[in-house]
């Protein structure tokens, strides 16, 4: 007896007889009559396949059991039975059984996906009872008594859980860290990654692969916070960082909320910031072409460390043209960008203008 025959017989012995209920009788009858399986028999095989899937058995072992049963009962029932007819019946029975098995698996996957999606929504929006949320979190590998951080990847197109980009990033994370410490999902077209706050290399790995997979998209990482509410806070910080990058024109591939804390401070008193922008930069509206070109010039000048040659290069201007624009700012506002005290006021006002979308939007 070959090794495969021994394994098949062993699989049959280990598999509960309930999943093979009626199969030997069907084989015997088909061998004698040459008929095909009836609709009721096929439905019964599908039902058994569904039950086997629900009970957690593997399809490979179940098919092996059917094959072993065929070998055991066919010769005994009808030694001279035509081979083609019996094999056709076996194929029908196994196909129906596998169809039921796969149907149950698809239903289980849909249920799992629905539960996962509901959990992600409740977790990121804090809409569920904390005790119940923590209990559900353990099912997905999270322990909300610990601190977690959230990273959000934004690319040129929306992503869902089945998108190739999402699967590629997920594969990179599972290959490196396994699938029990990190929760990957999508929300509103963005890829979300939730990871332990004391293991920053996980979100760093996510950021690296998400940036590459999205063809240069941006990734924002929130700060670690404990508990379910901390996940919400970290998620909101990451979203805020992406929004800030869009308004400020930042193109860095990875944004860290911990490095951008000055901006929420600056905008906490919106009215005070609006007053500063109007008072400091308002006179630039009288310049030829309006205030925007001079504000953009100041922004680039400050981003270049107040080095005129570098700022001129970034703006594709001559140093002389840049110097002329800075002189216009000094003349119109009374604040000299080269003066340290004036520079701080101007730079803060420029940041405020970009955050408040002025002068495109009235304050």
What's the quick description here?
By secondary structure, the chain is α+β, with helices and mostly antiparallel strands. It has helices at 3-14, 23-33, 39-54, 59-77, 83-125, 130-139, 164-177, 200-213, 227-248, 262-267, 270-281, 292-303, 308-315, 319-333, 340-355; strands spanning 147-154, 183-187, 190-196, 218-221, 225-226, 254-256. Helix content is 63%, strand content 8%.
Can you tell me about this structure?
The N and C termini lie far apart (87 Å). Strands 1, 2, 3, 4, 5 and 6 form a 6-stranded mixed sheet that branches. The longest helix has 43 residues, at 83-125. The protein is α+β, with helices and mostly antiparallel strands and 363 residues long. The chain is elongated and about 105 Å long. The model is unreliable at 5-13 (pLDDT under 50). The chain is built from 15 helices and 6 strands.
- Please report the total strand number as a whole number: 6
The pLDDT mean sits at 85
**Terminus-to-terminus distance:** 87 Å
Shape assignment: elongated
**Order of SSEs, N→C?**
HHHHHHEHEEHEEHEHHHHHH
Helix content: 55-70%
Can you give keywords for this protein?
363 residues, alpha+beta, 6-stranded mixed sheet, 6 strands
Task: Outline the secondary-structure elements.
Layout: H1 3-14, H2 23-33, H3 39-54, H4 59-77, H5 83-125, H6 130-139, E1 147-154, H7 164-177, E2 183-187, E3 190-196, H8 200-213, E4 218-221, E5 225-226, H9 227-248, E6 254-256, H10 262-267, H11 270-281, H12 292-303, H13 308-315, H14 319-333, H15 340-355
Parallel strand pairs: 4-6
Antiparallel strand pairs: 1-3, 1-4, 1-5, 2-3
Helix pairs in contact: 1-4, 2-4, 2-5, 3-5, 4-5, 7-8, 11-15, 12-13, 12-15, 13-14
């Amino acid at each position: 007896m070959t090794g495969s025959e021994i394994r098949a017989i062993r699989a049959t012995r280990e598999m509960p007889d309930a999943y093979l209920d009626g199969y030997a009788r069907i084989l015997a009858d088909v061998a004698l009559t040459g008929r095909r399986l009836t609709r009721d028999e096929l439905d019964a095989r599908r039902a058994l396949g569904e039950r086997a899937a629900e009970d957690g058995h593997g399809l490979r072992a179940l098919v092996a059991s059917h094959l072993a049963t065929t070998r055991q009962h066919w010769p005994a029932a009808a030694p001279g039975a035509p081979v083609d007819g019996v094999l056709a019946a076996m194929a029908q029975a196994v196909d129906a059984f596998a169809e039921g098995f796969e149907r149950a698996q698809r239903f289980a996957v849909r249920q799992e996906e629905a539960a996962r999606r509901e959990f992600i929504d409740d977790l990121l929006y804090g809409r569920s009872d904390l005790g119940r949320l923590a209990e559900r979190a353990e099912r997905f590998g999270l322990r909300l008594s610990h601190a977690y951080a959230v990273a959000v990847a934004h690319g040129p197109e929306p992503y869902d859980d089945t998108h190739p980009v999402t699967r590629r990033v997920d594969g990179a994370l599972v290959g490196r860290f396994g699938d029990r410490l990190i929760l990957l999902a999508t929300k509103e077209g963005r890829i979300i990654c939730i990871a332990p706050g004391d293991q920053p290399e996980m979100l760093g790995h996510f950021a690296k692969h998400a940036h590459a997979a999205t063809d240069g998209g941006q990734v924002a990482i929130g700060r670690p916070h404990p508990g379910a509410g901390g996940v919400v806070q970290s998620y909101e910080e990451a979203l805020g960082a992406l929004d800030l990058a869009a308004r400020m024109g930042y193109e860095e591939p990875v944004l860290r909320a911990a490095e951008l804390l000055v901006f929420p401070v600056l905008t906490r008193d919106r009215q005070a910031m609006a007053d500063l922008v109007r008072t400091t930069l308002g006179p630039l509206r009288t310049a030829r072409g309006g205030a925007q070109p001079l504000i953009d010039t100041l922004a680039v000048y400050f981003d270049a460390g107040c080095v005129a040659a570098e700022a001129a290069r970034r703006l594709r201007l001559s140093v002389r043209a840049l110097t002329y624009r800075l002189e216009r700012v000094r003349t119109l506002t009374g604040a000299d960008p080269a003066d340290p005290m004036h520079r701080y006021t101007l730079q803060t006002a420029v940041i405020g203008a970009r955050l408040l979308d002025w002068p495109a939007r009235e304050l």
